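Hi R.,

Here's the input for the zinc ion complex you asked about:
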Amino acid sequence: MIDAQTLEAPTENPTIRTSRRWSPGACVWCGGTESVEEYRNEPRCATCRHHESVIEEARRFMGMYGLRPIGGTLQSDDDEEYEHRLGARDSRRVLNEIRLEHQPDPELVRKALRPRAAAVVAEGKPAAKRPSTASSATGSSRTASASAKTAAPVKTGTVDIDEIQTRALALLDQLTAIDAQLSLVADQSGLAARARRSDLEKQKATVLRTLAALEKARLSAASK
Ligand SMILES: [Zn+2]
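And here is the predicted structure with zinc ion in place:
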């Protein structure tokens, strides 16, 4: 479902656009009120959170494989990378379209959030998540005018060595499974077996390529 808010705010109609203002409890980005929840220390609506997470996923993906940061051309090495780039670009576009013309005063937002923020701290959220949340909050609210286009690329923060290792281990399992299936069809002849072998070889090549990329990402993360 498309947020009604989005439909009521065509970019070419300045009167409607300027009349949309933030009020406590609403999304700080678009002023929407549909299931507003805290996202990176800011109240954001369901639509915004969805698009932000699409962009974040794409950013993580590029960081994980040491690929070119998102933004600019969609040129990609494979379908998965392309999907991420396309999704991120579309989400960025939507976010730019629904953005409130006047961003709320960060101080007012902080006040509105305070009870929840305090609760989060009390729960003892992992400290490791802090740097990225802090930097993105700074980017989107404190320097509201400067962040109109894209947030600064988060490079070092997105490469998580633990996550790379988890992913590498999963890939090694996958490799073992592929090898097992390969040995099953190794001696078979016929078109179907040949097609299956070729498919498995392709899968294996992809896994090996990804493992190599992960190793590169791990090394570069470890040297920081
Ligand atoms: Zn929103």
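One thing worth noting: Strands lie at 37-39, 42-44.

Cheers,
M.
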